[in-house]
Write a structure and sequence with these properties.
Helices cover 12% and strands 30% of the residues. With 217 residues, it is an alpha+beta fold. The chain has a single domain, classed as Jelly Rolls (Sandwich), CATH 2.60.120.590. A seven-stranded antiparallel beta sheet has the order 1-2-11-8-13-6-3, with helices on one face. It has a four-stranded antiparallel beta sheet with strand order 7-12-9-10, with no helix packed on it. The structure holds N-[(3-hydroxypyridin-2-yl)carbonyl]glycine and fe (iii) ion.
Length: 217
């Protein structure tokens, strides 16, 4: 029997509401993955992945780079967005059209029309890499949502509340899933548990996450 993905009885991947204004669009990016891979390869060639240091002096386990007008950086002086890659002294690579369109379409599907990101943080998780609970709050335009694309190995995502101590919910994010959060959920705490080892055709033993935001109001 061949699996006909267009058949009326094909398994539907359901959008999953996390909280008001926050949703996971299951498999939303899967069809574009090969174009994304080519474009991300070019971004990483121009601005290689690196492990940033937190203001407290800890090396982050997630490797990062950026594309778009502004890139997220962290060092002993703090967290901020910068137009120039501190490693090269050059502007971050431009946001590829494939990424811009994906982010805009995902935001629209989640109810946020005309999302025009000026920053795309590219996160690379190797086995064991994790991101503790945090808020995305270094952006000036908090009216715009965060669009977060998962590629490669699956991860366990933590969806918390408005304060760090709130109980968080765990959910799996797979290759192609896109989480969008904005409006009343824009400052929700979230994080990623330590990545389990594995192998995925998209990125081998890695998970790649793209976090799009609008920094300039
Ligand atoms: C994720 N990432 O990897 C979610 N936020 O699914 C984030 O929330 C995130 O990786 C700020 C900085 C880096 C990140
Ligand atoms: Fe985040």
């Amino acid at each position: 029997m061949t699996l006909d993905l267009f058949a009326a009885d094909a398994p539907e991947l359901e959008d999953e509401v996390l909280s008001p204004g926050a949703v996971v669009l299951r498999g939303f990016a899967t069809a574009q993955a090969s174009a994304l891979k080519d474009d991300l390869g070019r971004v990483a060639a121009a601005a290689p992945f690196r492990h940033l240091v937190t203001p407290g002096g800890l090396r982050m386990s997630v490797a990062m780079t950026n594309c778009g007008e502004l890139g997220w950086v962290s060092d002993r002086r703090g967290y901020r967005y910068e137009p120039v890659d501190p490693d090269s002294g050059l502007r971050w690579p431009a946001l590829p059209d494939s990424l811009r369109v994906l982010a805009r379409d995902a935001a629209a599907r989640a109810g946020y029309e005309d999302f025009l990101p000026d920053a795309c943080l590219v996160n690379r998780y190797a086995p064991g890499a994790r991101l503790s609970l945090h808020q995305d709050r270094d952006e000036l335009d908090l009216r715009a949502p965060i669009v977060s694309v998962s590629l490669g190995l699956p991860a366990t995502f933590l969806w918390g509340g408005e304060v760090r101590a709130d109980k968080s919910r765990k959910l799996a994010l797979h290759h192609g899933d896109v989480a969008v959060w904005g409006g009343p959920s824009r400052l929700r705490f979230h994080g990623v548990l330590a990545l389990k080892d594995g192998e995925h055709p998209f990125a081998g033993r890695h998970r790649i996450n793209l976090t799009f935001s609008k920094v300039r109001a």
